[in-house]
Amino acid sequence: MSRTAASFRAFSKVFANRRVRNVQIAGAGSTLGTWAYAVALPVYAYHAGGARAIGVLFFARYVLGALAAPWLGVLADRWSRQRLMLTADLIRAGIFAAVTAVAVGHGNPYIIYVLAVTSTIVSGCYSPAQAALMPSLVATPEELTAANLVGNTVASAAMFAGPAIGGVLLALSGPAAVFALNGALFLWSAAFIVQVPRDERPARPEHKPRFRAELATGFTSVLQSRALRVIVALTTAETLIFGTLEVLLVVLALRVLHSGNAGVGWLNTALGIGSLAGAAVVAVMASRRRLAGGFAVGILLTGAPFAALAAFGTLPPALVLLGVVGAGSVVVEVSGTTLIQRSADNDVLGRVFGVLQSLIMAAMALGSIIAPGLVGLLGPRGALIAAGVFLPALLVPLWPTLRRIDVEAQVPEEPLALLRRIEIFAQLPEAVIERLAASATLVDVPAGTAVVTRGEAGDDMYVIASGRATVELEGGTTRELGPGDFFGEIALLRDVPRTATVRALDELRLYAIARDVFLPAVTGHAQTLAAAESVMAGRLSASGLAAG
């Protein structure tokens, strides 16, 4: 009950957070239009060039989108992520104004094909930028999970509402009306994104690397981090199985269940209902810091029901099993996104999500190609079994790593609470504060002992958990420090000897944060560095020392 209450508190903060709310409303419009357009585009292509035109067009969209996504992820780490999302919306709105004009004027369909592929490529920067921006808009890990869940739920609702709206417009007017709607909804998205304050550009090295080197950083960040490597690999594998779903659902309905075209609709509806059930599960998970275990359960729930489907020949149990698949997919997407946001450094987060976006699109394309081959080789039931055992078999050797991810996610609460209250850390993303807290070392200092001495080299900054200390300057001026106060940052940031002696008045409990952890966190965020400089200047001025 306490976990559920904590989850609801996190959700209430998400809905009350205007910046997050604007991003979610923008995403609702953008996703709704995209799914409506997904109905109109194949119909237009079919009438213009037959089934072959559909296949070539969609293959080109997936493949070129997958190739472009890592490059666009670099932009999410070079520019303001809010501005990148806004730019993507405006470009796509312009593209669909042109698409509508060509369709209304019965122009060359190849122009529409090129514009459609271009829109897919541009869209490749939107999701990485949004995922990378979100940690800076929330205050706690619970709110981050809740925000990701809200976004996923909005996307799931749009996935079903969009095709319905697109189908109605298509029947009443034709593809051009749906294209125009999509362009208008991209403008809707831009209207809300522009209300989100512009975020600071992620920190870049002093010696700026070449664009290709920055691109490679996205891949190396994933490969070098055990947590990122496993989460990205399993998410890609889950998407591969989902990529087979469009084909396997039709085969299941027509050749296994013998439920006709209506059966395909019922199976898709079951997936949607399952997605809502999965959202409820993740809502309870939102208060947990341990998400890797839930991620693993989601992988199992997405894969195993496929194998079970082969054992049934009637529609009702198939609907239940497809509902489980839908629930599992939501758990995978939300917990996987949150784990990546917590595990990757802020300055490479856009590139990491760019890599993931590329792999997801490639997996979707590959899955749609593999499915017919599986059916032809193994038959309908054999294809379902093969798809069903793939994810559980892949999960078995990776389970120990997932368990370690959960263990490492346990951040000590006391230093985390202390660091959240320090003004110079107020603007840091939650994931960065968690890493600072996880690195903090508890130090006990007897009364009367000097913690740091004026003139000596400094390797740590300190935060007081309990007890009192006094600051001793050369002229004898002192001030008293208590729980929640911090000291030692000047020597680290200015690379100078200690400017004062700090001595314990009572027995002190301190948390020490090492230079190599503290400096990247503070100097990597412009607002945080400005806050630290302001604090240092005030302290140096009060002590009569030169602020420089």
Q: Could you say which overall geometry the principal axes of the C-alpha atoms support?
A: elongated
Q: Quote the average pLDDT.
A: 81
Structural class: alpha+beta
**Strand arrangement across the biggest beta sheet:** 1-8-3-6
Over the alpha carbons, how many angstroms does the gyration radius reach? 27 Å
Proportion in helices: over 70%
Order of helices and strands: HHHHHHHHHHHHHHHHEEEEEEHEEHH
Question: Biggest sheet: strands, sense, closure?
Answer: 4 strands, antiparallel
Gap from first CA to last CA: 54 Å
State the assembly state of the protein chains.
single chain
Number of strands: 8
Content of β-strand: 5-15%
Q: How would you characterize this protein structure?
A:
The chain has 548 residues and is α+β, with helices and mostly antiparallel strands. It is built from 19 helices and eight strands. The strands form two sheets. Strands 1-8-3-6 form a four-stranded antiparallel beta sheet. A four-stranded antiparallel beta sheet has the order 2-7-4-5, with no helix packed on it. Helix 12 (292-309) packs antiparallel against helix 13 (315-343). It is elongated.
Structure characteristics:
548 residues, alpha+beta, four-stranded antiparallel sheet, 8 strands, 73% helix, 7% strand
Give a short overview.
With 548 residues, the protein is an alpha+beta fold. Helices cover 73% and strands 7% of the residues. It is built from 19 helices and eight strands.
List the helices and strands and how they pair.
Blueprint: H1 2-16, H2 18-78, H3 81-104, H4 109-123, H5 126-133, H6 141-172, H7 175-193, H8 211-224, H9 226-243, H10 245-256, H11 260-285, H12 292-309, H13 315-343, H14 349-408, H15 413-420, H16 430-439, E1 441-445, E2 450-452, E3 460-466, E4 469-472, E5 478-481, E6 486-487, H17 489-494, E7 501-504, E8 508-514, H18 515-523, H19 526-543
Antiparallel strand pairs: 1-8, 2-7, 3-6, 3-8, 4-5, 4-7
Helix pairs in contact: 1-6, 2-4, 2-5, 2-6, 2-7, 2-8, 2-14, 3-4, 3-5, 3-7, 5-14, 6-11, 6-13, 8-9, 8-14, 9-13, 9-14, 10-11, 10-14, 11-13, 12-13, 12-14, 15-16
